[in-house]
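Reading a protein record of the kind used here takes only a little practice. An example makes this concrete, so a full record is given next.
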Amino acid sequence: MYLGIDLGTSEVKVLLLAPTGRVIGTAGSPFTVSRPHQRWAEQNPADWWDGTRAALAALRARHPDEFAQIRGIGLSGQMHGAVLLDAEDRVLRPAILWNDMRSVDECGELTARAPELHRIAGNLAMPGFTAPKLLWVQRHEPERFRKTACVLLPKDYLRLMLTGEKVSDPSDAAGTLWLDVAKRDWSDALLAACDMRRAQMPRLAEGSAPSGTLRPQVAREFGLKDGVVVAAGGGDNATSAIGIGAIQPGDGFVSLGTSGVLCVVGDRFRPNPSSAVHAFCHAIPDRWHQMSVVLSAASCLRWVCKLTSTDEPTLLAEVAALPHDALATAPLFLPYLSGERTPHNDPYAQGVFFGMTHATDRALLGYAVLEGVTLALTDGLDALRAAGTEARALSLIGGGARSNYWAQLLADALDTPTRKHGGGETGAALGAARLGWLAAGGDPATVLTKPPVEIEFTPDPARHAALRARLDAYRALYRHVRPLFDPARAPLA
């Protein structure tokens, strides 16, 4: 058996995979995000470990015989988070997360310090990335910066707890802005721009390669044999791609999780930072991928449900029952509740409803939210296409992928067939388990298969044309309100 551990922002998911490729079972443990100041987002790494242990205990209780047969473990995790350790491997402060926007000024500083940043890292300096966070710590918490002996990404902190090893992989490390993404190795020049050294970085291994074995005390806690191998793993988007078999150029997916991601695989490093497109390494050798990112996706749906005192199934049913002319009467929604990444890289952007009347009800607000996230993803696909990247079809993963209505809306807006696979909501955890299988000696031809297509959604040309008109209005709305988001950027009279 093979185990996948996916450390997300809202929960940790664990998945048990049989050598037939069948998912035996899953379990999870939820987290909350601490926001001690506006635009901050933090979590305590100890909570990740406690949650992982709880989820593993639950999975073991449900499937004791299969759990005892685990031979390989893979890791997946939220990207960009900064876990600062001292020389004794003690955590120095809460982890600063991917959706933390405090380091805006440091992004400009890093760009000035590292003229080769875009060429080497393949990405713009954004507050979500790891390197600007360390410049912020250096400026505002100099004693903690001085004590920092190692910086780990979130999933790699779990690895330290599991194996005692400090290791990362190129797919996750590409999101730090310290990696030479073409060479898949740390860049001494980019580290030096942050007054950091290679010695403060974990060693790198490809995502499908072994990174260590379980510590004896961890193996005993869960009734596992000695020598269980732990794969290097990958960032959540790369492992999601592994989970749905997106390994060849042109394969792609849309992830509707806390954030939204549109990812397409390629066989070489193709940066396009001018449109805030991400160019990262894949979790397997000799593959890269391009991504557009929406910082708030399914989290927007949760937010509007809370705002209107309902739950997601109820609201989605109300949206699906709307008449066809809802597209023309619904408000526009900018889904920038945590800022904006692709294509504008605007950390000051905020959520906006525009065009409400007395006739606007809860269902129309719900539709507007689904459409707003969809249009943001369409904005991103247009940026990928401008860089020469095309997707033949897009698989859907993440919690939002459960909605057939949203899936069809995406197909219509993106003008690309979209596909749902069985168990799509476990994509990253499944991908992590597959990497654990490979690290334990699995054959890639057997492991890296595409799950069966459950349903395919074909674009509707008439709806696509209507949504392109809505996209024009959506873009115009952003241009008009952008100066109001940041008073320092455009002072009011």
Summary: The first helix runs from residue 45 to 62. The chain has a mean pLDDT of 93.
